[in-house]
Design brief:
Shape: globular
Number of strands: 6
Structural class: alpha+beta
Radius of gyration: 15 Å
Distance between the termini: 9 Å
Bound molecules: zinc ion
Helix content: 25-40%
Strand order of the largest sheet: 1-2-3-4
Oligomer: single chain
Length: 144
């Protein structure tokens, strides 16, 4: 996948505004990210164990470490991270729903969850936070 997505002008403005106002309007449990947001100019979409996946108003997908594992921000383009960032981001910001990838005709059903979005082999409850490699979409792009 690409580390840069096409952002329509209105969404670019939306992302820029969320970045600007992050320290005052972000959900309480995410406000500690504010210094990273202003430093890297990215809107956090998904918080992993040690890093954050974020979107810039330019459409660049970037990640940074919140554990000081490495400095600065890097672009990312692996399918799992891109899908995860966009799917989780759209849950937080419904305005971003149009960015969630639609299943391409040549996509294959995710073999890790058989298309359910929930990884196979997990107990019925207690593991709701485990996210499948397809980011819960139930499919993977051809060649991924
Ligand atoms: Zn899956």
């Amino acid at each position: 996948m690409n580390s840069q997505i096409e952002l329509p002008a209105d969404l670019a403005a939306f992302v820029e505004e969320r970045i600007q106002r992050f320290s005052e309007e972000a959900p309480e449990q995410r406000r500690w990210l504010a210094p990273y947001v202003s430093q890297h100019r990215g809107l956090p979409l998904y918080l992993g164990w040690t890093g954050t996946l974020a979107l810039r108003a330019t459409g660049e997908l970037i990640q940074w470490s919140t554990e000081d594992e490495w400095p600065g921000a890097r672009e990312f383009d692996d399918v799992t991270s891109v899908q995860l960032a966009l799917v989780e981001g759209a849950k937080l910001y419904p305005e971003l729903v149009p960015l969630v990838p639609e299943r391409p005709a040549n996509a294959r059903t995710c073999e890790h969850c058989d298309g359910t979005g929930r990884p196979n082999g997990l107990p019925v409850s207690g593991f709701e936070n485990i996210i499948c490699r397809c980011a819960g979409l139930g499919w993977l792009p051809a060649g991924a």
